[in-house]
## 1
Amino acid sequence: MFKLNEIKELIKLVDETSIHELELENEGSRLTIRKPGKTEFVQVQPAMVNGGQPVSVPAVHPAVNTPAPAQTNAAAAPAEADANLHKIVSPMVGTFYRSSSPEAAPFVSVGDRVGEKTTVCIIEAMKLMNELEAEVKGEIVDILVENGQLVEFGQPLFLVKPE
């Protein structure tokens, strides 16, 4: 059974990414959020939200208040320049954080040496903090996203020169 505030949070998350469809199943309820074009709706099947009342909520149009994905072109240029660099990519959709708290120093900076188990960032997804490890031994060459930025599944976050 999905709560209305969870659905609203998922709509916002889908709206802020290039994901076009999200499908979840929980306790026999199925939630599908799609962005096929100009008309976008959230559908819950079977209708078990708010005491069994059907829910169809229009999603926010993706062209409104969505930041331009300028980082994708910037990320592609360094990757093409040196094919020997290892990309650390996001394993999920969420918010990228360089440190464990606003007051803490970043986990890594450009020029830092990392090992396979070195924590490089945190990805927050659905209020869960997920630490991401480097998975390769080497030197951080570039950080491709900004602190607090929403990231997508498979999006490159760091470039590492392997040892």
## 2
Amino acid sequence: MQDHAFTDEFRMQFDLLMRLRRDVRRFRTDPIDEAVLTRCLDAFLRAPSVGLSEPWRLIRVDSEDARSAALKNFQAANEQALAGYSGEKALSYSRLKLSGMQEAPVQLAVFCDDSTTKGMGLGAATMPETRRYSVVSAITLFWLALRAEGLGMGWVSILDPEQLKQDLDVPDIWSLVGYYCIGRPQMVSDQPELERSGWERRRDAMLIEIR
């Protein structure tokens, strides 16, 4: 394969793609074209992984019972999280929309299989957590692929992972990386929703230490 010389136009479009890759919580409910979803899921096959272990394991959560269990899990964890704040911060937290689980047409639970023998342990002997980092790398590529197709994704991390594993009946050795809501966003913005809501602000510049 020849090396590609990417154009300035491509680099500008890629920069735009990264800026528009937002954590989406507000979805339209219309279904997603399965061919488009499959094309985006192919990003996992192109993702880097430590030792070429490919430890990601994906569960598509489609049934009413499974989705109901996941939603109840989120609601319980969210109430617990709210109890950790007080005063104005608690009020601000209570107003945040932190998942699109009731609207998103596609929902995925993504796990890391730390028991995989693929890759024969290369690169993970001293840092086994690199398998999970590999899963996150794959998710990032998937996220960008979705945005390029006009779709959005929201990462739900306010969950009890052990309860979700039990509800989805997955192997105990798998570790939850995240629960993902996927669909067409109600709006597109280059600003994080948490910033728009006043919860937090992005840094103005990258902080790099030199030693």
## 3
Amino acid sequence: MLEIYFEDETTKIDKKIEDMIRKLLNHAATEEGLTGEMEVSVTFMTDTDIQEVNATYRGKNVPTDVISFALEELTEGEVAIVPEEGMPTVLGDILISVETAARQAEEYGHDFNREIGFLALHGFLHLLGYDHMTEEDEVEMFGRQKEILALFGLER
């Protein structure tokens, strides 16, 4: 089971959206064959705040739609985290810009909830190791996103 902790720094996200994301990410976890207890945090931010995070951690001083920080992903010099028995695996953090999500929903011609769900799933798949740095990886990740969204019933 996937436990999701929400923080809304914008006060624009209601319980219906949180429930939809909770169901979607648990559906994705099942589709990905994940087992055991896991945790993820989802933070809803403004463009200004996500731009600051983007500049600090990615060297890109612009707002973006979603950023993920995988706890299990090692960088040079880090030591692997070994979870204690009986403790949930913390997958990481997903940060979503509500302002960018609203703009993108309008631009793409679909519902705000669909865009927020898409971004949450996109961030979640990054936590699981998916990426889109190469064309091959992009095809795999975006194909998986589309498949999971369709099975969940959250299509464009």
## 4
Amino acid sequence: MGHGKTERDEQLADLAHLVLSVGRDIRLHGHPDTEIIEITELESLVMNHVQQHPGVSPTRICTEVGLRSSNTSAVLRSLAEKGMIERRPNPDDRRSISVHPTAIAAENLRRVRDTWTEFLAPHVDATVDVASAVELLRAVETSVAAALGTRSG
């Protein structure tokens, strides 16, 4: 692209920068709730996918999240050790496995979301239309995931 940047080009670059910056700030803030089970960014991606698709196979997680099978296996092992997922025989094919989120995972997600809310609430004016921002970012996430051949989470 280079020289002939439009105002929209600048706004899109600003959007990317701000999403990364706020995401970093949220991660740096951490979770003051000591009951929260810490998971890595990669574990979070996989966990999010499993929560949206309970019963998904490890192979589909690989494909849809865009990971190598060795990485997927390591992440699933770690999440199982933390009590976040349960691997069960697939009822349709007893030789394969389906991955399910646990009650611990649901409670952990609730606690994390509460922490995010508490962190962001004082920084977002009550008059701001948060729903529009969420809708925009969700649409971008879905489109980018489709273009990359992965499922959004």
